[in-house]
C-alpha cells in the first residue's frame, strides 16, 4: 500500500520530554504553524510573560546548533491560543506571538519525507537530512508543510535531523514514508557552540 502524501511538519513520537515558551518577533515575515521546526534567534524579549523570553524562528537546516524542536502550540501576543500565527503579525509591537516548543534534545519526532527525486532508502536509516518546506502550512488545520528533504540525506553532521527508523506502519523506500528522527546539533544539547 502506498504511503499517504500529507505533510504535517514535526509530531512528537512517544512522550513529550520538555517544553518551553518562545517569542516570535513582531512582523515576522513567515506564518508559523504547529509542527514547524524552530531554531534560536539569539535575541530575547521583555514581555508580559517575563523578562528575557528567548526568540525563535523557523529553521529547516542544521547550522551551528541553533535547532530546538517542533512547535506544539501557538499563541497570540496576549497568550490566547491560535490555529497558526499569520505572517507579518504586529502583535504588541515587540512580539507577534508565542510558540510552545518541545525542546528536549532527546525528543523523537515523526516527519514525512518529500519523496522528491528518490525516496529515502532503507539503507539511509542512521543518516542525517535537512528539512524542506515543499508545501505551505495549512490555514485550515494549522499544521506545518515541512518535510524531510529526501535529496539531502547524507552523513554530514551539520544537517537538521538524524533518521532513527521508519514509522512502523509505512513502507520504507517508497515516496512519503514517515520516519522517526531526532534533532541534530540541538541548541540544548551537550558541546554546542553558542548562538550570537
Topology:
Layout: E1 11-13, E2 19-25, E3 32-33, E4 37-47, E5 50-58, E6 67-76, E7 81-82, E8 84-85, E9 95-102, E10 108-112, E11 128-129, E12 131-133, E13 146-148, E14 161-166, E15 178-183
Antiparallel strand pairs: 1-10, 2-9, 3-8, 4-5, 4-6, 6-7, 6-9, 10-15, 11-14, 12-13, 14-15
Query: What fraction, in percent, of the residue positions are helical?
Result: under 10%
Q: How many DSSP helices?
A: 0
- CA radius of gyration is 16 Å
| Major β-sheet profile | 6 strands, antiparallel
Task: Give the ordered list of helices and strands.
Answer: EEEEEEEEEEEEEEE
Label the structural class.
mainly beta
How far is it from the N-terminal to the C-terminal residue, by CA? 47 Å
Strand content: 35-45%
Q: How many β-strand runs?
A: 15
Task: Please state the overall shape, judged from the principal axes of the Cα atoms.
Answer: globular
Mean pLDDT: 92
**Poorly predicted runs of 5 or more residues:** none
Quickly count the domains. 2
Overall description:
The protein has 196 residues and is mainly beta. The chain has 2 domains: 12-102, no CATH class; 106-183, no CATH class. Helices cover 0% and strands 40% of the residues. The protein is globular. The model has no long low-confidence stretch (mean pLDDT 92).
Amino acid at each position: 500500500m502506498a504511503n499517504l502524501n500529507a505533510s504535517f511538519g514535526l509530531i512528537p513520537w512517544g512522550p513529550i520530554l520538555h517544553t518551553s515558551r518562545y517569542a516570535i518577533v513582531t512582523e515576522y515575515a513567515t506564518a508559523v504553524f504547529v509542527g514547524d521546526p524552530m531554531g534560536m534567534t539569539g535575541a530575547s524579549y521583555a514581555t508580559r510573560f517575563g523578562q528575557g523570553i528567548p526568540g525563535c524562528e523557523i529553521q529547516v537546516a542544521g547550522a551551528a546548533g541553533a535547532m530546538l524542536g517542533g512547535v506544539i502550540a501557538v499563541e497570540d501576543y496576549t497568550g490566547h491560543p491560535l490555529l497558526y500565527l499569520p505572517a507579518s503579525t504586529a502583535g504588541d509591537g515587540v512580539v507577534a506571538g508565542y510558540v510552545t516548543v518541545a525542546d528536549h534534545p532527546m525528543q523523537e519526532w515523526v516527519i514525512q519525507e518529500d519523496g522528491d527525486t528518490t525516496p529515502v532508502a532503507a539503507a539511509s536509516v542512521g543518516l542525517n537530512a535537512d528539512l524542506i518546506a515543499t508545501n505551505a502550512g495549512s490555514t485550515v488545520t494549522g499544521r506545518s508543510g515541512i518535510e524531510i528533504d529526501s535529496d539531502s540525506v547524507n552523513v554530514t553532521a551539520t544537517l537538521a535531523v538524524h533518521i532513527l527508523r521508519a514509522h512502523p506502519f509505512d513502507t520504507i523506500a517508497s515516496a512519503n514514508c514517515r520516519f522517526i528522527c531526532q534533532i541534530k546539533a540541538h541548541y540544548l544539547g551537550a558541546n554546542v557552540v553558542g548562538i550570537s
